[in-house]
Amino acid sequence: MSKETASNARMARSDVSNARNALERYSRGATPRPLASAGGAGVDTLASFVESLMSGSIDVIDLTQPLSEATPMIQLPPPFANTPNWRTHEISHYDEKGPAWYWNWFEGGEHAGTHFDAPIHWITGKDRDDVAQVPVRRLVGPAVVIDKSREAQANPDYLLTMNDIRAFERQHGSLPEGCWLLYRTGWDTRANDQKAFLNANETGPHTPGIDIDLARWLASESPVVGVGVETVGTDAGAAHSFNPPFPCHQFLLGANKYGLTQLANLAKLPSTGAVLLVAPLKLVKGSGSPCRALALVQR
Ligand code: 23J
Ligand code: MN
What we know:
By secondary structure, the chain is α/β, with parallel strands linked by helices. The chain folds into two domains: 3-56; 87-298, Glucose Oxidase, domain 1, CATH 3.50.30.50. It is 26% helix and 26% strand. The protein contains seven helices and 14 strands. It has helices at residues 3-27, 41-55, 149-154, 162-172, 194-198, 212-220, 247-254; strands at residues 58-62, 87-95, 98-107, 115-117, 140-147, 159-160, 179-184, 200-201, 204-205, 209-210, 224-229, 258-261, 274-280, 288-298. Helix 6 (212-220) runs parallel beside helix 7. The relative contact order is 0.18. Bound molecules: oxo(2-sulfanylphenyl)acetic acid and manganese (II) ion. Manganese (II) ion binds at residues 111, 115, 117, 233, 259, 261, 288.
């Protein structure tokens, strides 16, 4: 082996181990250290990001559904307990209870409207993070959008499969490390109508989801940190009778990954290249939280 080849080989090995260490830090939620390059690469990219934001060449898309008393809630069958509807109560409205101020208080479940599922939500993640403990580094990352709205319109029980992911990767490249998989089904158009949104009949709810094998792969082998959907939950409406039941919840939350539901405006995102920002409330011991979900896209 020539000196040069040997040094390349050493370099390659240390690159691999650096990458592995970075990945390791990332998956623990540690903040990656800025690159030690001259001039501070981190500062320059952030300045150019702000410039793009100000010029409008980076757009901010709101992926959040409005949260109100009309927001549809999941309905579990008996004997399971259900989450109440969201409610707001007025404290004062520029009146005798508060002459110069308007404010409300609210009541509602952690899993209301556009919301975040923390690992502790499911029994498989019971020793993992609650919503306050989730590392914020994992709440910002690349988003890939897989569009099955045609399929879901034809079949409300449509299940995303491993083959769909393979086809997506052939067209758009591999899923990036630490990405959020956003699954578009067109269900967002039903979000202001509880009946159409839950789409239940005598056999239970019929809404699109993810099949068992794909849920398992996403949890244990894929580079995905979370799955976002337009429906009431990350699992299909019929997932109560899958084996195991609710495989997205079971596998993803058990693998320290996240769920994000009732998203809007996925149609405005490119298949790859958007950046997702998710902001759940820091509810101590919370199993999840209503959240604001935003995407940054290059115009
Ligand atoms: C509890 C039980 C089953 C399901 C869910 C909650 C959710 O969808 C949720 O919001 O996490 S499927
Ligand atoms: Mn939930």
